[in-house]
Amino acid sequence: MAADEKVIVADKLTKRFGDFIATNEITFEVSKGEIFGFLGANGAGKTTAMRMLCGLSAPTSGNAQIAGYDIYSQTELIKKNIGYMSQKFSLYENLTILENIEFFGGIYGLTDQQIKVKTEELVNRLGLKSEAKKLVGSLPLGWKQKLSFSVAVLHEPKIVFLDEPTGGVDPVTRRQFWDLIYEAADRGITIFVTTHYMDEAEYCNRISIMVDGRLEVLDTPANLKRSFGVGTMDEVFYQLARSAKRGD
Ligand SMILES: Nc1ncnc2c1ncn2[C@@H]1O[C@H](COP(=O)(O)OP(=O)(O)OP(=O)(O)O)[C@@H](O)[C@H]1O
After folding, report:
1. Which of 112, 153, 155, 158 could form a disulfide with 108 if both were Cys (CB 3.0 to 4.6 A apart)?
2. Nearest of 114, 207, 194 to residue 156 by alpha carbon
3. What is the ipTM of this complex?
4. CB under 8 Å, gap of 24 or more: what pairs does 179-183 form?
5. Where does the ABC transporter domain lie (predicted)?
């Protein structure tokens, strides 16, 4: 395996809606096992970019390879090799934890034996053994999120895309969620994560910040703080975001 294998390569990736340029010539690379934060104010173009990278929406122009597959012509292969979790797409609330794992394992093409092994690992890791037959709908939000992430990486995808995965939970619960992220990254799964929480931004290896459709900065949290001459990612973000024209 190459020491620095690039699993996401985006080159001037652009999406227009009529005259409006939602994502404007973004160019960046992400390495295998990296935790890559994708930040930006509301309306900056993050979701639009992520949908293109997941093979869900065709770019207007530019190129990208995801896990080595072409974003225009190999979208089915991209979908097979990634995991995806968002606040909106989640588990089935009216199925139990076990039923959800079985269901998604089946969708991802795992064998019954693989599903059995994964289920055991997953409920043990999350400390959910005694809850396994409970409906997902009855779990607290933080547990749902952890379960949802674990299911998104059930098939050990090359990359997992997380769209604001920890919305609405406290910093301690977020920190526990991030322990799962680190474990996945240690196994070589690349993490692409959007967030509005600056404590989470600090957990990323590198951070990109979008402003009005453009990828304005990309560096480690430490380097960004240094180059902006500030002490926190909050201040870096504020300095960039206040120049934005879009947003609420
Ligand atoms: N299908 C569409 N047609 C027209 N405009 C769109 C469409 N989808 C998104 N946009 C616009 O593109 C811009 C970027 O939206 P996008 O959802 O990518 O932003 P975002 O950075 O993900 O914001 P948020 O943090 O609020 O989710 C917004 O101004 C939005 O209104």
Report:
1. 155
2. 114
3. 0.95
4. 180/146, 180/149, 180/150, 181/35, 181/149, 182/35
5. 8-237
* CATH numbers and ranges of domains, the chain: 34-51+83-241 (3.40.50.300)
Which pLDDT value is given to residue 89? 60
Distance 17 CA to ligand 1 centre (A): 10
- Summarised one tens digit per residue, pLDDT across range 84-132 is 998 776 799 999 999 999 999 999 999 999 999 999 999 999 999 999 9
8-state DSSP, 135 = B
Beta carbons of 175 and 185 less than 8 angstroms apart: no
Secondary structure letter of residue 42 according to DSSP: T
8 Å CB contact between 17 and 68: no
